[in-house]
Write a structure and sequence with these properties.
- The longest helix has 38 residues, at 2-39.
- It contains seven helices and 33 strands.
- A hairpin with a 4-residue loop joins strand 32 (427-437) and strand 33 (442-452).
- By secondary structure, the protein is α+β, with helices and mostly antiparallel strands.
- It has helices at 2-39, 46-53, 284-289, 372-375, 382-385, 400-406, 499-503, and strands at residues 40-43, 58-64, 67-72, 75-80, 88-93, 96-99, 102-106, 115-117, 122-125, 128-133, 138-142, 147-152, 155-160, 168-171, 179-187, 191-192, 202-203, 206-211, 215-220, 229-234, 245-251, 272-278, 308-313, 321-322, 328-333, 341-343, 351-353, 365-367, 386-393, 408-410, 417-419, 427-437, 442-452.
- Residues 1-19 form the signal peptide.
- This is DUF4988 domain-containing protein.
- Keywords: Signal.
Length: 514
């Protein structure tokens, strides 16, 4: 009897489970249908396609069965082409133009030239006619600019192309076969600190290593998305050294690369990226469990080990791409450095635009303390060894009325400042920078910055002075009026205007170079 009772319970349980299963299947089908609708959508216009794609990289644009099909990683958008429209597929590859797969020859222009069609269907390169008529209904695949241009029925849109995968890494400038310093501080006890990086009101014990500078590299092919990768160094045994981390990649925004100065690089359209250095933290307990820090980077005889830069795809477990083994590092313990830095006005700007948030330029502050044997005469600046800082307004030099008038504010993390109001233009603001180094030493800087309307740009121009000899002598005219000197520059012992009102508050900081 007990056996039958158990069978009845089992049957009831199965019946209940079956009913639940039937309901779940229906819900599951609904979920699948909803998901499919999200993945495969129909656009009403080209602008609708652009809105649905957003900034997602496009992997292909094709025409099939009277439809324009746009595919990204995870989404397909289709658009019903107007009746009778015949779309020409154009590709720009290696500087040549291909129409429906046929090579039409070099297109001219330069790497990165913008290719479109005008209302008459004539191919345009950088806004100029290229002498080839391709029609008004086109799909232009332009890998050099990483963009698809689609023109149909009077509408034109551009969609970002999915970036190519990384193939190789080429180091640039003085990173090649150059030994870079790693600065590190060792704290044996907590230091009181209430800045943004503080932990429970302290800079805690441990090790704080940081590379002396960012790394500039060329990522090949041009157009690869450098932000899609993380970066690290690897030795010849494929091991990653501890206490040496790198940050994110960003488009290089520095000066143009020249043959005579390879430490400078071009901008990102040429494939150049900056890999930022990263201030690491190693707890004391981890230091006790690891091998000696310095011996990771050099042998006992002083020879340095070689390292490669490796890029790892953030969305893949595949083995990373390595550069050549040309990097080497020299760890320097900077515990003896004091918080003694001064502003180098000759090599740095001290003006900032109003209405924009700014952070101090710590590269402008040179070390003036005792260098000791560890630096061996090497110059360092505050940016090399700073751990954290706090900004505040110097109210001993600025009244509350002026602070409010300029709209001067400090960010919540005390790392940035802004003069929000135009009244600050051509006036000075006074700030205090309290800072702490990676060795726990604390210091303070008092700075004055000039607020300007727009950033100052510098131009180099050649001036022809001529060969005529200019002769002049000073004549005391007393009160005599000399009409010949009207509208001329003359010598005077005094002036009847305020220079700041005419030339701006920073007129005495102007510099003319010959």
């Amino acid at each position: 009897m007990r056996k039958k009772y158990l069978s009845a319970l089992l049957f009831g349980a199965l019946l209940f489970a079956s009913a639940g299963t039937f309901t779940s299947c229906k819900d599951y089908d609904d979920d699948i249908n909803n998901l499919q609708e999200q993945i495969n959508t129909i656009a009403s216009s080209l602008e609708d396609i652009k809105a649905q794609i957003g900034d997602k990289g496009v992997t292909s644009v094709t025409v099939e069965g009277g439809k324009l099909i746009v595919v990204t990683n995870g989404q397909t958008v289709s658009y019903d082409l107007p009746s009778g429209v015949d779309v020409e597929e154009i590709e720009i590859k290696d500087g040549h133009l291909y129409v429906s797969g046929v090579d039409k020859g070099a297109i001219g222009g330069t790497n990165g030239s913008i290719v479109t069609v005008n209302e008459d269907g004539v191919l345009m390169i950088d806004g100029k006619e290229a002498g080839l008529k391709v029609g008004t209904e086109v799909i232009i695949k332009d890998a050099s600019n990483g963009v698809y241009t689609i023109s149909i029925n009077g509408e034109t849109i551009q969609l970002p192309m999915a970036s190519a995968g990384l193939v190789s890494i080429s180091p640039l400038g003085d990173d090649v076969n150059h030994t870079a310093n790693i600065y590190y501080g060792l704290l044996t006890k907590d230091v009181e600190w209430d800045g943004a990086k503080a932990v429970d009101g302290k800079m805690v014990v441990g090790m704080y290593p940081v590379l002396e500078k960012d790394i500039n590299v060329m990522l090949n092919p041009t157009g690869v998305d450098g932000t899609a990768y993380s970066y690290e160094f690897r030795d010849s045994e494929n091991e990653t050294p501890w206490g040496l981390k790198l940050g994110e990649a960003s488009v290089y925004a520095g000066d143009k690369l020249t043959v005579g100065n390879l430490s400078r690089a071009t901008v990102s359209p040429s494939g150049v990226w900056t890999i930022s250095r990263y201030l690491d933290y190693v707890p004391t307990k981890d230091l006790d469990e690891r091998a000696d820090y310095v011996t990771q980077f050099k042998q006992n005889d002083g020879n340095y080990y070689a390292f490669a830069l490796q890029a790892n795809d953030k969305n893949s477990d595949a083995e990373g791409i390595k550069s050549q083994y040309i990097y080497s590092f020299n760890p320097l313990n900077v515990n003896d450095i004091t918080a003694d830095f001064t502003y180098n006005s000759s090599d740095s700007k001290n003006y900032y635009t109003y209405g924009v948030e700014h952070t101090p330029d710590f590269e402008a502050y040179e070390y003036k303390g005792s260098a000791g044997s560890i630096l061996n005469g090497k110059e360092i600046d505050l940016a090399d060894v700073i751990y954290d800082y706090k900004l505040s307004i110097d109210e001993s030099k600025m009244t509350k009325v002026k602070i409010d008038e300029y709209g001067l504010k400090i960010s919540a993390d005390k790392h940035a400042f802004i003069a929000e109001k135009a009244q600050a233009v051509n006036n000075k603001i006074s700030l205090i920078i309290d800072y702490i180094l990676i060795n726990g030493q604390k210091g303070q800087l008092k700075v004055d910055y000039t607020i300007v309307e727009k950033d100052i740009t510098f131009e180099e121009k050649n001036v022809t002075l001529g060969s005529n000899v200019f002769e002049a002598k000073l004549t005391d005219a007393d009160s005599q009026v000399l009409s010949v000197l009207n509208e001329k520059y003359v010598y005077a012992k005094t002036v009847d205007f305020v220079p700041e009102d005419v030339f701006g508050s920073d007129y005495n900081e102007w510099e003319i170079t010959w």
